[in-house]
Amino acid sequence: MKRIAITLFCLISALLISGCADRKVTRVDTAQVTDLSGRWNDTDSRLVSNEMITDLLTAKWIPIYEVQHPGKRPVVIVGTVLNKSHEHIDAETFIKDLERAIVNNGSVRLIQAGEKREELRNEREQQNQGYVLPETAKKWGRELGADFMLQGTINSIVDSYKKNKAVFYQIDMEMTDLESGEIVWMGSKKIKKTIAGRF
User: Fold this and answer.
1) CA dist 121 → 12, 108, 125, 127, 141 (Å)
2) Would you say 81 and 95 are in contact if contact means Cβ atoms under 8 Å apart?
3) Under 8 Å CB-to-CB from 91, ≥6 apart: which residues?
4) Which of 36, 53, 119, 124 has the highest local Cβ count within 10 Å?
5) Whole-angstrom Cα Rg for the chain
6) 11-22 b/e with 16+ CB inside 10 Å = b?
7) Phi and psi at residue 147, to the nearest 5°
8) Pick from 131, 190, 192, 132: nearest CA to 165
9) How far apart are CA 159 and CA 166, in angstroms?
10) Distance from the first to the final alpha carbon of the chain
11) DSSP assignment of the chain, as one string?
């Protein structure tokens, strides 16, 4: 009985080791499209954010703002992007892609939101409690007030039959004037993927 247990253990170990030996890891360019599962991924996030921001920053709301406020760029804060899709999507990654595209474009000014804004305020509070040289402490009441807030949703629809599946994503974004509540821009991006085989 003991000999059978040892033989069985050795056999299972050999199978596990041979299974691991088949794995191969290859480093690829981060801009390369890799879609292994058919689920939302970094390529989707990057493509959607780039297209959305291009549309957002070439829309009519910026020239209208510039006419009403000569010599000033609009100040934008990115609010919530709700994930209402069927799968877990890290909205933070998508938000960061949006913010990066906004900053790199330079047409508008972007301010921090959420937890990072609170962290900045905590640091300012610490500076004003005598921990740093008074002449270097940053003053309260100097933050930029946002003119507009960008918000959005990620939705999905799944259609499947036997070993085939189609996944449809719709990302909707809107820019709202914080003072008036007027929606000054709306954008939508759709992605559809088909997956064949086991899933």
Assistant:
1) 57, 23, 6, 10, 10
2) yes
3) 80, 81, 82, 83, 154
4) 53
5) 25
6) eeeeeeeeeeee
7) -90, -35
8) 192
9) 5
10) 40
11) -HHHHHHHHHHHHHHHHHHHHT-------TTS---SSSS--HHHHHHHHHHHHHHHHTSTHHHHHHHHSTT-PPEEEEEEEEE-SSS---HHHHHHHHHHHHHHH-SSEEE--HHHHHHHHHHHHHIIIIIS-GGGSPPTT-PPPPSEEEEEEEEEEEEEETTEEEEEEEEEEEEEETTT--EEEEEEEEEEEEEES--
Supply the pTM of this predicted model. Answer: 0.76
Of 23, 36, 33, 15, whose CA–CA distance to 197 is shortest?
A: 36
Q: Which residues are bridge partners to 95 per DSSP? A: none
Tokens of 116: 């990072």
**Cα 125 to Cα 130: distance, rounded to the nearest angstrom:** 10
Walk along the chain (199 residues) and give the pLDDT tens digit of each residue: 666 666 666 667 666 665 555 677 666 665 666 666 667 777 888 888 888 888 998 999 999 999 999 999 999 999 999 999 888 887 888 888 888 888 988 889 999 998 898 999 999 999 998 888 989 999 999 999 999 999 999 999 988 888 888 989 999 999 999 999 999 999 999 989 888 876 5
Q: Could you give phi then psi for residue 181, rounded to 5 degrees? A: 80, 5
Strand bridging mode 148-161 / 164-177: antiparallel
